[in-house]
Amino acid sequence: MPEYRYTARNEFGAKMEGVIDAATESEAAATLSVGGLFPLEMTPVLKQTVTGKVRRVNAQQLASFYSQLADLLHGGVPLLRSLKILHDQTSNTNLKFVLDNIYRRVEAGETLAEAMTRYQTVFGEMGVQMVRAGSEGGFLEESLTHVAEYTETQDDLKSRIIGALVYPVLLSFFLITVVSAILVFIVPYFQTLFEDLRKRGELPQITEWLLFISAQAKFFLIGIIPVLIFGFIWFRFWSRTENGRRLIDRFKLRMPLVGRVYEGFAVARFCRVLGTLLKNGVPIVKSLDISADATGNQILSDAIQRASENISGGSRLAGPLAESGCFPRSIVEMISVAEESNTLDSVLIDISASLEKRNWRSLDLAVRFIEPLMLMLLGTIVFFLVLALMMPIFNMSNM
After folding, report:
1. Please, are residues 122 and 54 in contact by the beta-carbon 8 Å criterion?
2. Alpha-carbon distance 177 to 40, whole Å?
């Protein structure tokens, strides 16, 4: 049965709020009137229409939620009232549903982190843990601000990478389309033209290769489409398994050109989150458990978890990180010096800022390097096609 959130006044004029089950808004108002309440406002509570997991929320909307909640709390607005304000003003139906349920659970006595834990699909493990640490350590507003910055940075990085790759991807699509059309529809017409040269054994080898590729291209294109569709479906399922995720994350770290950039951003996120938590007095073991999720990479996360276990046994942070082989030596050395001087929190934040600037420059250089590579590949293929088709024609004209 639908639910309606109401605001009403009782017989003494006191304002009351709550939720009531009713088939229609009129029925809800009538039920309140029978109970001696005068309804002022009636709002239907949106329910999730799709069973199963809650859908993800747009990163910009999620970052806006974190930032606005931090501002409201910093301004002295109580948590429940802040959640209601954000619930009422959001236009995203999925986020509105989630905030309504979080409001109810917090109202029932759960902490904000406990309520958010039920919707990790939306908020993510790292976001929930940061909120939990902020609630327990008394710096919830700052935690929410850092989660908002982290979410915005992730979305900005994703947008910049997609924007940078639009030109190479379109160029690749154009290249594949044009070359496929030439091989399937144009090159076969030269088959009969070059037949006499082939019988005399005077057809250049490069042209023989082109004619062979053209003869196989049609069957290859017909057969490759179902293979690509099946491969895409299989990859989607496989990438969600633990082994699949680990292999993909390992490949991301080893990719040419962009692997170092990806690793740099992951390490920068780890340093910023860890430095923020340590700065606010969170114990280092718990800080490492939370910041491990900030990397977004299972390989780096496992290395940090192993470091956390060693620290529990009395070791320093720099040693286990160096042994993992997943962190740059320069970063490990700075962490080691910071531990000795007891300035680890501030040094980690400085490392994060420095890494982010360096990574943005490296990313721009990597993207600029991809574009001329694509143009060189396009020029090479065009040169091969022209040379393979024109050489026999020159030979025929010289006879």
Report:
1. yes
2. 63
Residue-wise pLDDT for 257-282, tens only, equals 778 888 888 888 888 888 888 888 88
DSSP code for 49? S
The count of domains in the chain is 2
| Residues whose CB is less than 8 angstroms from the CB of residue 73 and which lie 6 or more positions away in sequence, other chains included | 79, 82, 140, 141, 144
In this structure, how many other beta carbons lie within 10 angstroms of the beta carbon of residue 78? 10
Same domain, 79 and 20: no
pLDDT digits (tens, 9 = 90+) for 222-259: 777 788 888 889 888 888 888 888 898 888 888 877 78
Could you read off the pLDDT of 133-157 as tens digits, one per residue? 888 778 888 888 888 888 887 788 7
Question: Does residue 217 form part of some domain?
Answer: no
Instruction: Read off the pLDDT band of 47 (50, 70, 90).
Output: very low
- Same domain? 129 vs 82: yes
In sequence order, what are the beta bridge partners of 32? none
C-alpha distances (whole Å) from 365 to each of 153, 359, 361 are 19, 10, 6
Host domain of residue 112: 59-138
Question: Chain centroid to CA 267: how far?
Answer: 16
Q: Exposed/middle/buried for 336, CB within 10 Å: 0-12, 13-18, 19+? A: middle
Is the same domain home to 91 and 35?
A: no
Per DSSP, helices labelled H in the chain are: 25-34, 59-74, 79-89, 93-107, 112-117, 120-137, 140-181, 189-193, 195-199, 205-238, 242-254, 259-279, 284-292, 298-312, 318-324, 329-341, 344-398
- Please state, rounded to an integer, the average pLDDT across all residues of the chain: 81
Q: Which two tokens stand for residue 329?
A: 């030596």
pLDDT tens digit sequence for 288-319: 888 887 787 888 888 888 888 777 666 778 88
Residue recorded with tokens 């040693």: 319
CATH value at residue 81: 1.20.81.30
> Does 101 reside within a domain?
yes
Q: Which residues contact 313 (CB under 8 A, 6 or more apart)?
A: none
Hey, what are 33's tokens? 């009137």
| pTM of the predicted protein model | 0.65
127/291 Cα distance (integer angstroms)? 10
**Last residue in a domain, options 91, 119, 138:** 138
Asked if residue 102 is part of any domain, the answer here is yes
pLDDT confidence of 68, banded at 50, 70, 90?
very high
Q: Which amino acid is at 380?
A: T
Does residue 72 fall inside a structural domain? yes
